[in-house]
Amino acid sequence: MKRPASARAFATSCALAAAVALAHPALAFEISAMSDAERDAFGKEVRSYLLANPEVLVEVINELEQRNADAQAQGDKALVTANAQDIFDDGWSFVGGNPEGDITVVEFLDYRCGYCRKAHGAVTELLETDGNIRFIVKEFPILG
Question: Is 127 a residue whose pLDDT tops 70?
Answer without folding.
Answer: yes
